[in-house]
Amino acid sequence: MTWIPEAASNLAGKVDGVILVITLISIFFFVLITAVLIYFAVKYRRKRDDEETPYITGNEPLEIIWTVIPSILLILLFVYGFVVYKDMRTPPKDAVDITVTGKQWIWTFDYYNGKKSLNELYVKQNVPVRMIMRADDVLHSFFIPQFRVKQDILPGRYTQLWFTPTKVGTYDLYCAEYCGTGHSQMLGKVIVLSPEAYDIWEKGIGVDEGDAVASLPPEELGEKLYKEKGCNACHSLDGSVVIGPSFKGLFGKTGTLEDGSTYVADENYIIKSIYEPQAEIVQGFQPVMPSFKGILSEGEVDALIAYIKTLK
Amino acid sequence: MANESVATNVYVPYLEQKGFMSWLVTTDHKRIGIMYLISISLFFLIAGIIALLMRFELMTPMADFVSPHTYNVLFTLHGSLMVFFFIVPGLAASFGNFLIPLMIGAPDVAFPKLNLGSYYIYIAGTIIVLYALLQPADTGWTFYTPYSATTDTDVVMITFGVFVLGFSSILTGMNFIVTIHKMRAPGMTWHRLPLFIWASYATAVLQLLATPVVGITLLLLIAERSLGVGFFDPAKGGDPVLFQNFFWFYSHPAVYIMIIPAMGVISEIIPVFARKPIFGYKAIAYSSLGIAFISFLVWAHHMFTSGISEVAATIFSFLTFLVAIPTAIKVFNWLATLYKGSIELHSAMLYALGFVFLFTIGGLTGVFLGALAADIHLHDTYFVVAHMHYVMIGGTVMGFFGALHFWYPKWFGKMFNESVAKLSWFLVFVGFNITFFPQFFLGIQGMPRRYATYPEEFQSLMALSTYGSWILGLGVLIMTVNLIKGLFSDEKAPQNPYGSLSLEWQVPSPPPTLNFDKIPEVTDWTYGYGKKKEVDA
């Protein structure tokens, strides 16, 4: 672990410059103040009770110096922080637009080419991206530490940020603004693809991934989807209730719905819960689950069901 | 300073009168100060235990000790209780009440009955909040909309409690302002006032001017929740960011309501134990007022990523850098006061020096958050959590503990065990740093705050932070036991054990009911320590 995360966007290096300069200045003043403090505390430690001390009430030149020097430094730091901030807030004209919707507790991405994805943001290496962002419910905040970008997402208003990913790889996306029970599970991934890989992803399902997915046994694919599509934000595997019912021992279970009728958690019940989550609400739970229609294919739902069956 | 007044009346210590009723109806500022001290200390201990529970949960990445919802409730309670019930009333209400009349040579505050009334309002607020704990809110202490307007938990009760509490703060502030203006002893000119009084004055102005804003904001939130008025709900034409503007318009000055009295305490302790006049008296006094003034103009630095305009962010960043200047000046002045002193490392002095050290870290890390580009990365991460705790614990709580150890003999007429006090200081200081210093690194790494669960890569630093919290907790426990045990010791405190020149030390310990037999005549400032060589300019 390095002291600062990998710099994986065009902005990261600039932000690190600001952080580094402030760090160095802070260390200088911290060491200076601590050294003086300890030196005085040791050197002038009371040895006898009747020691004489001088009557010093101030020293104008000294006070002017220690007012003016920090003032100049602080103003320079302000300017440095501002200059980089200006870059961070000015997307280039040729940036590609991707729309983000934050909703308790999932991220949805809509691409300029009509594609959609959930919790996984696909971007092309070295192509500037402008994120157009809004929230469906409460405040969220879009934060990619490796890119050094962060912006709150609000309901009823668009906010934006931009970056150019510079390194192929997978990076963490966090929600940084507290948004309720599942806040710490509102995690996503940013997948930076090389131009070639991106073109293939654009044409169909991600190639490497598509092949891997096709070759996985359904239970394993289901487990993968459980994590990637955000089921894990609300449905635990250990029987504890986070937001929704736990998946542990779910399959075949019977229970009561909000309207008093009973249900059996069979295949039909699960697929309906995924595509039309508001239709049947289990007693004691809130109607907060979004529909996954158009996000999960029927084959993927089958895989999820296969996975849930394994969770005894 | 005034000479000790000749005892013309019989000395009746203010603690002499016994019985529950004598406390319920007392208008004695010293007794009201004690009642505040006990109340805020209880809330400090409760909120501290909640913090220990949170850190215990955070030892592992998974939510294995409490559920995420419970964790969210815990950090809401920790923040709300610490901020509104401990640290805001904190030093101002407890030590402010006890010390202001004594230090300026007055028999009591200007409005003693109103003072008792303020305390009852505080208690009313606490009862409402304790009731709110039946169905505790999970919004965080900031109550950001729209979440606070939509969550199922009981936000109305806790915000109403805070609203009621606000009146206590406003009335106390007004009482202190009038007291400092009108009740100073003859000869106690503004430039002879102890710096704790200047700090209390600046704090009182902030309390008076800023608190109504949070009161109104919380009222609007209550109206939104219970009547469905859309002040902050975009679906009804409201603006969610408006709440943040309102909230921080109070809560940023509130940060200074919390820290300025502690700065005042430090300015009292250091000269006494260094036997030196405070260095740069006027700079410290006026910087308190300067900080108070600028603190009204920096609130949006909590909102650089919130969606405010880039122009607004830039202006607020600049103003934030300005507030750093008077703060830096104070630190340099405290250091210079030590120069050529005769320094006694009494436990109170250790807390004061600990304050200077920790507050320096808190202040410097604030520069990161004031600089726009750096703040974008660090905002809402553990870096902010660490910075805030370095200011609030490293600053205010160290000041509070320092004040407790410094004025304890005066307040209670008893002595605590000094060796145990030093030991507990050491544990608090070391434990605090182990708890919070790793959090700066966590924040730079990108660990977001208010996470009940977290990615595994953060675990080693998170666990270290939890171990630190145990040492810190042990330190506070030992300190509490030591101070409570001291109350029952037989050792009587002398009138002026440290040789202070301030007026409160010129009356017996504990002070008489009416403070002074005769209102003292003040002839010099409070800090005339050391040997005057020639006439000073």
List the helices and strands and how they pair.
The complex is a heterodimer of chains A (312) and B (537).
Chain A: H1 12-43, H2 60-88, E1 96-103, E2 106-111, E3 116-118, E4 120-124, E5 129-135, E6 140-144, E7 149-153, E8 159-163, E9 169-175, E10 187-193, H3 195-203, H4 207-215, H5 218-228, E11 254-256, E12 262-264, H6 267-275, H7 298-310
Parallel strand pairs in A: 1-5, 4-10
Antiparallel strand pairs in A: 1-2, 2-3, 5-8, 6-7, 6-9, 9-10, 11-12
Chain B: H1 20-24, H2 29-57, H3 68-87, H4 90-104, H5 112-132, H6 147-150, H7 155-182, H8 195-227, H9 240-274, H10 281-294, H11 310-338, H12 347-370, H13 372-378, H14 382-412, H15 418-445, H16 459-487
Short key terms for the protein model shown above:
heterodimer; A: 5-stranded mixed β-sheet; 36% helix; 21% strand; elongated; B: 537 residues; mainly alpha; 66% helix
Question: Could you explain how this protein is built, in words?
Answer:
The complex is a heterodimer of chains A (312) and B (537). Chain A is of the alpha+beta class and 312 residues long. Chain A has 7 helices and 12 strands. Chain A has a 5-stranded mixed beta sheet, with no helix packed on it. In chain A, strand 2 (106-111) and strand 3 (116-118) form a beta hairpin. In chain A, helix 5 packs across helix 7 (298-310). Chain A is elongated. The two termini of chain A are 38 Å apart. The model of chain A is unreliable at 206-211 (pLDDT under 50). Chain B has 537 residues and is mainly alpha-helical. Helices cover 66% and strands 0% of the residues of chain B. Chain B has helices at residues 20-24, 29-57, 68-87, 90-104, 112-132, 147-150, 155-182, 195-227, 240-274, 281-294, 310-338, 347-370, 372-378, 382-412, 418-445, 459-487. Chain B is globular, with a radius of gyration of 23 Å.
